[in-house]
Design brief:
This protein is of the alpha+beta class.
């Protein structure tokens, strides 16, 4: 490939798959390029990874350069780019002048097209809200020697790909009015300065999941049934890490994970107190790893479901929701006033959050907020549970951490060590 051709591709800020031949030079012409996108919505997995593909048809002749220009929003990163013909994985090139604008240097190994061209773009995202990737332009140039003889350019109106957090629906949701009641799930704790991003939980249950008074107004009433007793004596581990040796302290926690964790801190003598009927939920299979936990907690009135009969275990949960779940193991108390500036008296979880605070299970943030609608993360969840079961962190510190991503200097170190080890 000659220097003139290389300069042409670089000057476009886009990269190419350069394929060469020797035909006569001709006057350049321009046409519209049609291309396909594999999906308009990417839901990342538990590790924050996802991908989408851009496919263009085979060109009319073998020698050409195909170029991609993609705009990334804040928080979304490109993890890999793979070109279908050669299988080569390359690193993207970021624009020096436009923030978040990337071009791809994708060189064909064989210097010929064998058919349609697909560029698969791997992404990573760990935020709580949806983001939009913009495919700015796809361009294909064909050459004779140093001369561009024809160009095909995609329509300038950009194509959008939505990036959704782990646990979201893989179908773009239809907006619904805010729920009147509460929802089950996670909630924060700790004195962490981690932001939580103020995320509002998407598509929360509307039947007062974890809320006896499902009107959402005023302080909720106590459960008119026996309560399971928490295990405050055995000191056994109740949460574990991932196969890769990580704990992921700032990863969000789902409804299924919350149910499993909470069930594991119920005293074993209480496990027969309620019949387990997870199959009241149409989306829980008998073999689901969290079926037993959900069945028990549902019968105990600790965690409920959605009006359509589903549980939606993959949904993430908020700090208010987690506080609601854990508060149901004790008589609700309203001792003192609400210390958090962002929990209004008409918030559906007001009574539950206040009760958790009165029991010294939650602390909040240094700025005086609780951020009830922010998604909880794993470190915050174990901090709350450790306080609720009265776990003495100093009893476990000598064991140290077994996780590669839990730094001894972080605020959550002692909580994670205590939650993931049996008492020595």
């Amino acid at each position: 490939m000659n220097k003139t051709k290389t300069a042409l591709i670089v000057s476009l800020l886009l990269v190419g798959i350069l394929l060469h031949t020797a035909t006569a030079a001709a006057t350049a012409t321009t046409a519209t390029l049609s291309y396909a996108v594999s999906t308009d919505r990417v839901v990342v997995d538990a590790g924050g990874a996802g991908s989408f593909g851009i496919t263009i048809p085979a060109p009319a002749q073998e020698f050409a350069a195909v170029q991609f220009e993609v705009q990334l929003p804040e928080g979304v990163a490109i993890s890999s780019v793979r070109y279908s013909e050669s299988g080569t994985t390359i690193s993207p090139t970021q624009s020096d002048t436009v923030a978040g604008l990337y071009a791809f240097s994708l060189f064909s190994a064989s210097n010929v097209y064998s058919g349609a061209i697909t560029c698969t773009i791997g992404i990573s995202y760990n935020g709580p809200n949806e983001r939009t990737i913009t495919i700015k332009r796809v361009k294909q140039d064909r050459y004779t020697g140093a001369h561009t003889v024809a160009s095909e350019v995609s329509q300038e109106n950009a194509r959008a790909v939505t990036v959704a957090p782990y646990g979201s629906s893989d179908v773009t949701p239809t907006p619904t009015p805010p729920p009147g009641g509460g929802a089950s799930g996670g909630g924060g704790g700790g004195t962490s300065t981690q932001s939580g991003d103020g995320a509002v939980t998407p598509s929360t249950p509307t039947d007062g999941v974890d809320v006896e008074d499902d009107s959402g107004a005023g302080s909720p009433t106590d459960m008119p049934r026996p309560r399971p007793v928490l295990d405050r004596a055995s000191g056994k581990a109740y949460i574990f890490g991932y196969p890769d040796g990580t704990f992921r302290p700032e990863a969000r926690i789902t409804r299924a994970e919350t149910a499993s964790m909470i069930y594991s801190i119920v005293d074993d003598s209480q496990k027969g107190l309620f019949a387990q009927s997870a199959f009241r939920f149409s989306d829980i299979d008998s073999g689901a790893w969290y079926a037993e936990a959900v069945g028990y907690l549902a019968e105990a009135g600790i965690i409920l479901g959605y009006p359509d009969g589903t549980f939606r275990g993959e949904n993430d949960i908020t700090r208010a929701e987690f506080s609601t779940i854990i508060s149901k193991f004790e008589q609700l108390t309203s001792t003192g006033g609400m210390p958090f500036s962002d929990v209004a008296a008409d918030h559906w979880a007001y009574g539950f959050i206040l009760s958790c605070y009165a029991n010294e299970w939650i602390v909040g943030y240094p700025d005086g907020t609780f951020r009830p609608d922010a998604m909880i993360v794993r470190a915050e969840a174990v901090a709350i549970v450790n306080r609720a079961i009265g776990r003495n962190l100093s009893d476990y510190l000598s064991l140290g951490t077994k996780f590669t991503d839990v730094d001894p200097d972080e605020w959550y170190y002692a909580d994670i060590v205590a939650a993931s080890n049996d008492k020595p």
